Amino acid sequence: MFKAFLIKYAEIGVKGKNRDLFEEALARQIKYALKRCEGEFAVRRTRGRVYIDVLSDYDYEETVENLKTVCGISSICPMVELEDEGFEKLCRDAVDYLDAQYPDKHITFKVNARRARKNYPVESMEINALVGEKVLEAFPEIRVDVHHPDVMLYIEVREKIYMYSIEIPGPGGMPVGTNGKAMLLLSGGIDSPVAGFMVAKRGVKIDAVYFHAPPYTSERAKQKVVDLARLVARYSGPIYLHVINFTEIQLAIYEKCPHDELTIIMRRYMMRIAEEIAKKTECLGLVTGESIGQVASQTMQSLAVTNEVCTLPVFRPCIGLDKQEIVEISEKIGTYETSILPFEDCCTIFVAKHPVTKPNLEVIKRHEGNLADCIGEMLERALETDELIIVEA
Ligand code: ATP
Ligand code: MG
């Protein structure tokens, strides 16, 4: 029954030229989401609004599900499209629409008409009043409430006539591509996919890097990361995933540094490598799934020591969230089930029983000095292992 969608976006302050770029990016991301859906669609921008016309048979549920992944959409309004066959017919159509959508008529409503085509013979205010009357006549239980109606029936008169009353919430935020690009450190856990989603939601395109440590981490662990990237790509668009072989560096750290400092030193090398790749790929910052105090390597002291090797800004969108809050977001975006699959990651294999929780930067630097004669070459070799996987949703 719905042959078109009105797409509403919420960000205030997108004006002038920025608004154009914003809408362009929104339309691009909508097309990307619709590629995953059966059917033929056209995305149209007119007078500061974005519409989707449905041009063939399609699956309504599937289409709405996919549109819900488009960052920047505040709501999705499925619309009924009608030929203009006179005002009488419009009134009957409005009655039929409400009848079909709201089987239980114990509701309040209000008509909100907009006459975009000024040669239509009935003015907006009149449409509101006259359609309202017809609805009241047709359904005795229904009431008008002009302030807080249960149902706001929008009628848009253009070349054709559009009617809608349903608003399905989208993810909000800004369309990906309106805010530069960042490099996500993507592990197989719960937090980093959520972090990736959260920056994508603010319009940031993401590339990702995964540190793989074969044979200590399995192919299945790597596949899990690719699967997570694919789930995040529903929101962020295609992700260029760099897989770096980290085994040599990890073993060297294990051999030459105190075991209670392994994680923190390892994290510092991950950041260094991620930053190298980020700079080569025009990323403006790094993104991690860290949250204050979640584990030993995420105390304030540890975060400060990890951060010290970076010159690019490091964004940590989960920083103030409790684990449960992160889990809730991961469930909402559909990454949770994959994240909890039990494949080891390189951090879980080389963890110490009692990792430092208050690392001292000078001490850490001194112990990193144990690697001085080999680490330069190892970092180069690690960068050479870069396997690029382009992950599409
Ligand atoms: P996550 O749930 O994202 O794995 P975590 O709570 O397990 O996070 P850590 O393992 O300490 O936390 O990792 C902190 C952050 O470091 C991760 O959120 C991720 O951004 C990055 N990270 C950790 N391990 C890897 C890895 N093997 N490859 C890429 N990034 C990683
Ligand atoms: Mg992890």
Textual characterization of the structure:
41% of the residues lie in helices and 20% in strands. The chain is α/β, with parallel strands linked by helices. The strands form 2 sheets. Strands 1, 2, 3, 4, 5, 6, 7, 8 and 9 form a 9-stranded mixed β-sheet that branches. α5 (191-201) crosses α10. The radius of gyration is 27 Å and the shape is elongated. The mean pLDDT is 95.
Task: Tell me briefly what this model is.
This protein has 393 residues and is α/β, with parallel strands linked by helices. Helix content is 41%, strand content 20%.
Topology:
Blueprint: E1 4-9, H1 16-34, E2 41-46, E3 49-54, H2 60-67, E4 73-82, H3 87-101, E5 108-115, H4 124-138, E6 143-144, E7 151-157, E8 161-164, E9 168-169, E10 181-185, H5 191-201, E11 205-212, H6 219-236, E12 239-245, H7 247-256, H8 262-280, E13 286-287, H9 300-307, E14 314-315, H10 323-333, H11 336-339, H12 346-349, H13 361-368, H14 372-384, E15 387-391
Parallel strand pairs: 5-6, 5-7, 10-11, 10-13, 11-12, 13-14
Antiparallel strand pairs: 1-3, 1-4, 2-3, 4-8, 4-9, 7-8, 12-15
Helix pairs in contact: 3-4, 5-6, 5-10, 7-8, 8-9
The site of adenosine-5'-triphosphate has 20 residues, from helix 5, strand 11 and helix 12.
